[in-house]
Amino acid sequence: MQLRYNYRAYPDGGQRSALARAFGCARVVWNDCLRARKEAHAAGEAYVSSAELSRTYLTAAKQTPERAWLAEVSAVVLQQSLRDLEAAYQAFFGSVNGKRKGPKVGPPRCKSRKDARQSIRLNTNAFAVRQGGRVYLAKIGEVKVAWSRELPAAPSSVTVIKDAAGRYFLSFVVQTGPEPPPDTDQQAGEPIGIDLGLTAFAVTSSGKRIDNPRFLRRAERRLKRLQRALSRKQQGSKNRAKARAALARQHAKVADTRRDWHHQVSTQLIRDSQAVYVEDLAVRGLARTRLAKSVHDAGWSAFVHMLEYKAARYGRAFAKVDRWLPSSQTCSACGAKDGPKPLSVREWTCTACGACHDRDINAANNILAAGQADR
Predict the structure, then answer these.
(1) 195 is catalytic
(2) Whole-structure pTM over 0.85, yes or no?
(3) How do residues 302-352 score in pLDDT, each as one tens digit?
(4) Marked catalytic residue, from 32, 84, 195, 297
(5) Catalytic one among 84, 272, 279, 297?
(6) Annotation says 279 is catalytic
(7) What are the structural domain ranges in the chain?
(8) Which of 28, 149, 161, 265 has the smallest C-beta neighbourhood within 10 Å, fewest atoms?
């Protein structure tokens, strides 16, 4: 399986300038090629191939005065930008004809120099991990990297990312196989079903309850203060740029804290269970309700994705059950459906068998039963 390993990078002043040029050139190539395909489509012409785009907007464009500065960056950066555009089109076409799994995606859009996040991608011909821990990037130099852990194998590509807070990261793609779960020599426990929620972030069929930390809610007061300070600054001023960076750093802190907590909880659940079953929640639909901020704050999609890839990595079973499963309406003891209940009802008694249920634990038990029945 392919995994990404992210590390914080610390380029010096000259390297930051070189990266800014690379970000800009990759963006221009993307926009030029995207415009060419849109114009051809509007004129009723055939789909412009990547080879033709490469000849016109990379090779030939470097010979013109208007695009001569494209030669200042590695050709790999420009070619990878074109490949990324082609991948975006293929994802869009697959979404239209129904061959692509997952949520539908729209057509590629133009990139702006004002985008908060900038990135370039390099393959093995344009980067190398040097002795001493530095990473060489073509036409940029050897960049200092904070190695928080070792790479399990030689990386096949690296993405250089500058986020909204002005931080730089190197994201390596590594091919790796199954491995034992971390920090355990014991056999995995019983299978579990997980009911995700907002009052409690997760409740398992074994009765374990994981509280919802609400990272965004806890940081809301500081975020509001920083947002007000930003709104008072004059457009285009240096003080406004400083205020925007301060707000971006606070948002990044919230996101990093949530991601770290998700990793800890998901690793613990996968390590302690031989099989994990969760409900396939319609997060996009829930995010359009009055609970939108709480749903985004919980980060269910990211958490379920972590469970899925960690289960594959550590040799555990994982499955999503149907989102239309009436897990909160069905008695996990006798299987009788007792009808829908408002969220305020946290405990209820089955009218058929008289069993008393905790709403969340009962739902988790039903998710576990449905997951095992589908295997």
Answers:
(1) yes
(2) yes
(3) 999 999 999 999 989 999 999 889 998 899 999 999 888 888 888 989 988
(4) 195
(5) 279
(6) yes
(7) 2-175, 192-322
(8) 149
